[in-house]
Amino acid sequence: MNINASLFIQWIPFIVLVFVTMKFIWPPIVKALDERADKIRTGLAAADQAKAELATANKKVDEQLAQTRNETTKLLSDAEKRGAAIVDEAKKRAEDEAAKIIAAAKAEAEQQSVRAREALREQVAALAVKGAEQILQREVNASVHAELLNRLKTEL
């Protein structure tokens, strides 16, 4: 047999094998590879989108946390101001009440002092009348000498 004929005969099955492979085997493999490449591309795009969404969500969370911290700080400072105002108001009310109590006590003491002076005057007048009775050795009539006794009370 001739080498050329042998080569030619070997080429025929090879060409048939290449044709069958190109016609029936290669398209499903290429299709599967393309589908896998599309899935990978889609997955990578979804991952990139998820990263972007995560970054956006993290940014929003940070903004909300900062806003919440600011609001909390503001609320705390307002509460402290209100507390200080309430304490100041309570102190003022207590001082006012203390001043009222002191004024009432002073007025009461003044009234008691006036009453004590009046009682003392009455007692001194009675003693003076008794002393005068003893000196004069007779009874002094209070109704007859009322004006004299009133003058004596005012002088005391």
Total helices: the number is 2
For the CA atoms, what is the radius of gyration? 61 Å
Counting helices, strands and paired strands, the structural category is: mainly alpha
Tell me about the largest β-sheet: none
Question: Span from first to last CA?
Answer: 173 Å
Question: How large is the share of residues in beta strands?
Answer: under 5%
Helical fraction equals over 70%
Report on this model:
The chain has about 160 residues and is mostly helical. Helix content is about 90%, strand content about 0%. The protein contains two helices and no strands. The termini are far apart.
Short structural description:
This protein is mostly helical and 156 residues long. It has two helices and no strands.
Helix-strand layout with pairing:
Elements lengths: L2 H134 L9 H10 L1
Helix pairs in contact: 1-2
Which short descriptors sum up this protein?
156 residues, 2 helices, rod-shaped
